[in-house]
Amino acid sequence: MIEWKTLNEEVTSLYQQGRYDRAVVVAKKALAFAEESVGRDHPTVATSLNWLAGLYYTQGQYAQAEPLYKRSLAISEKAYGPNHHPDVATSLNNLAALYRTQGQYAQAEPLYKRSLAISEKTYGPNHPDVARDLNNLAGLYCTQGQYAQAEPLYKRSLAISEKTYGPNNHQDVARDLNNLAALYHTQSQYSKAEPLYTRSLAILEKALGPNHLAVAIDLNDLARLYHTRSQYSKAEPLYTRSLAITEKALGPNHPDVATSLNNLAGLYRTLGQYAQAEPLYTRSLAIIEKALGPEHPDVAQSLESMAALFRQTGREKNAEALEKRAAAIRTITR
Fold first, then answer.
1. CB neighbours (10 Å) of residue 240?
2. Per-residue pLDDT reduced to its tens digit, 126-154
3. Domain span at 51
């Protein structure tokens, strides 16, 4: 299966570069190779199905992703039983994430809970995979505004990670701190959120270095907090640094770069610095359309941001055109 492994490595590289269309082609080739080599119901095929489904999911092609995730899950359940293996938990998590993204929360919740139960049964209650599953379920509750249900899950996940790795030394601890901070941020509990964001950032800089992509994400989150609190002079250098790290790591045309551009543009729009905001919005939109296609939900969000800028600068007709296009996209992807 050396060829299969090589193909998967190519898929990973293309994904990291944001070259999703090419990655899909290679992932299909890897899937076909696996099916021919080991049969259609082998766990290796389930892995390839997950990769291909993940690429469709990233591009907002949910109808194409769902049957692949379901088939992957069925293969894993047949191979290992429905309640006994980490691969089953992984497939459950992936399918749940797809449903969560589409707002199908009632379908996502039992899958996340099943995954958590498998991890607890397989590893015990204090394993890092249990912490992962707790985070995923808590994230679902956050999405639904069920913050009282999410908070104890995030706290339990953090306790597991700190016990496993120590309080200041691992990415999983940083992840849990960041998620708990985001929960408090969402509830406008800024004084609780800020020290958690700051601590998460410090852990990642120490563990991964100052120019890692994970650091860029934490910089962006802390910048958003300062932006929300009207602490604009603190937010701008963090947004700018996050953008620089992301561009250097992924190249100028990656969707993550578009997100960073959009965030910095939003800050400039808040400050009334429209001439600085507009080219960032324009570049962000172009990147997203090229990478994800013209009908992706992220394109709609980008169009709405630019429309708001046009309204603030007196270009009502331009704004209306963008808003109509965004509305059409949201109708398609609903």
1. 15
2. 999 999 999 999 999 999 999 999 999 99
3. 1-109
Q: How far is CA 210 from the centre of its chain?
A: 21
What is the distance between the alpha carbons of residues 299 and 83, in angstroms, rounded to a whole number?
Answer: 39
Whether the CB-CB separation of 184 and 158 falls below 8 Å is answered with no
Write down the residue that tokens 């998967």 correspond to.
Answer: 8
pTM, 2 dp: 0.85
User: Of 241, 242, 211, 237, whose CA–CA distance to 226 is shortest?
Assistant: 237
Closest CA to 173 of 146, 142, 141, 208: 208
Domain total for the chain?
2
User: Does residue 276 fall inside a structural domain?
Assistant: yes
- Answer whether residue 137 is part of any domain: no
For residue 333, give the nearest of 275, 280, 294, 290 by alpha carbon: 294
**Segment 172-215, tens digit of pLDDT:** 999 999 999 999 999 999 999 999 999 999 999 999 999 999 99
CATH of the domain at 97: 1.25.40.10
